[in-house]
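Lay summary

Proteins are chains of building blocks that fold into shapes. Our project writes down both the chain and a compact code for its shape. Here are two examples, one after the other.
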Amino acid sequence: GDLWFDTSDGDKAYKCTGHSVAYNSTNFSIPDGYPHAITKAGSSFYVCGQGGDKVYKFNSSYSNTSSWSLGSPDGDTVSSPSGIAYANGYLYLVDSTRKKVYRYTTTGTFKDSFAVHSSVSNPSGICWDSAHFWITDYNNAKVYKHTLGGSYAGAYFSCQTYPTDVTWDGSHFWVIHLNQDKLHEYTRDGTATGVS
């Protein structure tokens, strides 16, 4: 399927249908000074932004239909929402400063949270592969496997330096890195395919 990514350079989300991050003609603007991650749930898109510490919802026509502030769940102020994933009917947001993953309904109601594994120095992105979460570590250039409940699942794979996000396309992982206009492909067991 298509891959989507966003960029703070122009505050837009882009559709990518090939391996290199060539800007597809399909894109939409995001009303945040620093959009950081995007996920799709059904026909809707959800973007987390660090400019306003918010989540923005877009419909299938790419219109912004709603947004909400992440607030201070668990007594923490979510100040660095760096990744977002959709799993089992909920949105999961990773905060790189708090080193936590926060679970919300798709309308913005906070449910609970979990701390990422202690080996994760700077959680920067998150995806769901239908069985587990995978969380990128910007500092350590690794992607860590967690259960739905947040426990470390005892596995990780190494990637190129400064990973900012990861996604799962149904058969492979794709990792994007700072200052690289490419997506790098990995198998389910974390083996680099050489495709980028």
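And here is the second example, written the same way.
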Amino acid sequence: EYRYTITEDGRYPGVVNDPKSQREITITVRDFRTGELIALVTGDDLTFTNTFEPNPNEGQISLKKKISGSKPTTDSSFHFLLKAENEGQSQPMPGGSPEEEEIVELTGEGSTSFEAIRFTKPGIFRYTVTEINDGVAGYTYDPSVYTVSFTVTQSEDNIYDLISERKIYKNGVEVSEILFDNQYSVKSHGGGGGGG
């Protein structure tokens, strides 16, 4: 019997080696007196599976808040919901969250962002962003539905890098930003329009 150890060694940019780096095999040589020696090979599977993992890329989703109509006497808090369009497919989420929904809060007018989304593989990843109707008195909420699409590909200049292209759509029409415009009126009972 002859025993051998086969080891995978070395490093290459972007390549993760098989976690099982060593395999053991035994070669048993038999003489059946036929004029030939027969070798029987037993032991581990000699297939090493390596994985290519390019450098990740991050995408950002930001939004703006506008209040039209009368000027409120105090600033209210508003909430915005981001959802993975293809739920149940382990789509990357802001801040690496395992949830398929994320909410950000903004007080009064201004802008805010969800945490960065980290992309580790090529693909098309879509998210919807809506304003939650909190029913604050005096406000008519913006019912717009925004879809943010990230197309993630390998760079043509460096295959080890991922690049992402972001596009934003409002009710199916491409736009340059996410803007929610709420109407405020002292005569309004609040809670009109909006999603959530």
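What can we say about the second shape? The chain has a mean pLDDT of 90.
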